[in-house]
Write a structure and sequence with these properties.
Layout lengths: L2 H9 L7 H11 L2 H6 L2 H4 L6 H8 L2 H16 L3 E4 L7 H4 L7 E7 L7 E5 L6 H17 L4 E4 L5 H11 L4 E4 L13 H7 L3 E5 L9 H13 L3 E4 L7 H11 L3 E4 L10 H8 L4 E2 L3 H8 L28 H7 L4 E2 H8 L3 H13 L3 E4 L3 E4 L1
Parallel strand pairs: 3-4, 3-7, 4-5, 5-6, 7-8, 8-9
Antiparallel strand pairs: 1-2, 2-6, 10-12, 11-12
Helix pairs in contact: 1-6, 8-9, 11-12
Family: Belongs to the DprA/Smf family.
Protein name: DNA-protecting protein DprA
Pfam families: DNA_processg_A, WHD_DprA
Length: 371
């Protein structure tokens, strides 16, 4: 634990500053400590801040709360991941509204080779539970190092976690509250077991109650952590459909099991398939085929090095982004994306990191130039 983490945690505790605005502050001022060190009158001039939020940033209670949270996570052996950390999960960092900071307690690789999210209704039927158990059992045979992500809620979520554990797969529960509690309490034993193979993850500090809006907000992490999201069973409306929509917006794969026509427990799944937001699967083989995953795939993922240290900066000709920018005085993000044949959401992450490291400068209108 370091003093800089006080400022990083503090950045998440400012009223009116969410993940996207926090990213903007980092881009403008350099790091979390600089945000709190900046003079109030200058903070007010930062686009999107203004006098009210600037005053919030200067409240001494913010860093006092951050100090308490730092003590809490230190005492409970909880890891803290900040957006600019090199070990921040690659898949999650690609998401435009990824948490600027999150907490994790457990024992697994957050950048595992293969990661899936499984979600569904809290009022699962026997059909839904059987599908979940069968899917995970067969996936465990084919991909023995698969990581399963869900939300530790009633129904399909807890069935996915328990099935993963039963089949010796690591599994992560994304929580809608702080790590000082488990909700629902009836899932505590499963949560404890998950700490040995998997873990618990949240972007909420201790003391946060499991309020309804938090469950919807945490769904972006469930979607963003994984290669694909699978909806097993869902009514016409529900949180699992929100997760699926978020995953779809990220450009991630979404899959769903179909249900009987007119079955209220499957309306949501059938609608996802009908709207072409989800691919139809009926088995683990369908999923493996759709994802082009080879059975028994155990090779470690190749970690793309996104951050550069001051002493080990790749030459521009070794970095495709910088190499292209060397040939242009200024370039729009869309032109750069076309030249690199890269999705804009993924390119935005790379540009953000290059800007944080002082290699490029962002101009109004999504235009960039070398520093």
């Amino acid at each position: 634990m370091t003093d800089k983490q006080i400022y990083q945690i503090g950045l998440t505790m400012i009223n009116g500053v969410g993940d996207i605005l926090a990213r903007h502050l980092l881009q403008t001022l350099g790091d979390a400590e600089a945000v709190f060190a900046e003079k109030q009158r200058l903070l007010e001039k930062v686009p999107g801040i203004g006098s009210t939020i600037a005053a919030e940033i200067k409240r001494p209670e913010i860093l006092q709360r951050a100090e308490k949270e730092l003590a809490f996570i230190g005492k409970n052996h909880i890891s803290c991941y900040f957006l600019t950390d090199t070990n921040y999960p690659v898949r999650l960092r690609e998401c435009p509204d990824a948490p600027i900071l999150f907490y994790f307690k457990g024992n697994t690789n957050l950048d595992a080779t293969r990661i899936i999210s499984i979600v569904g209704t809290r009022n699962a039927t026997e059909y839904g539970r059987t599908l979940t158990e069968s899917l995970i059992k067969d996936l465990a045979k084919a991909i023995p190092d698969l990581l399963v992500v869900s939300g530790l809620a009633y129904g399909i979520d807890i069935c996915a976690h328990r099935s993963a554990l039963h089949n010796q797969l690591p599994t992560i529960g994304v929580l809608a509250h702080g790590l000082d509690r488990i909700y629902p309490s009836s899932h505590r034993n499963t949560a404890v077991e998950m700490l040995e193979s998997g873990g618990l993850l949240t972007d909420f500090p201790s003391g946060t109650e499991p309020d309804r809006p938090n469950f919807l907000w945490r769904n972006r992490i469930v979607a963003g952590m994984s290669d694909c999201t699978i909806v097993v069973e869902s009514a016409e409306k529900g949180g699992s459909l929100v997760t699926a929509d978020i995953a779809f917006s990220y450009g991630r794969d979404v899959y769903s099991f179909p249900g009987r026509v007119g079955d209220s427990h499957s309306k949501g799944c059938n609608n996802l398939i009908r709207q072409n937001k989800a691919g139809l699967i009926t088995s683990a083989d369908d999923l493996l085929s759709a994802l082009c995953w080879d059975a028994q795939a155990t090779a470690a993922p190749v970690q793309t090095e996104l951050f550069f240290s001051d002493t080990d900066v790749p030459a521009p000709e070794q970095n495709p982004v910088l190499a292209i920018m060397r040939t242009r005085n200024e370039i729009h993000i869309n032109e750069l994306a076309l030249a690199l044949e890269m999705p804009v959401h993924q390119l935005s992450t790379l540009l953000f990191e290059l800007e944080i490291n002082g290699k490029i400068k962002a101009l109004p209108g999504n235009i960039y130039r070398l520093s």
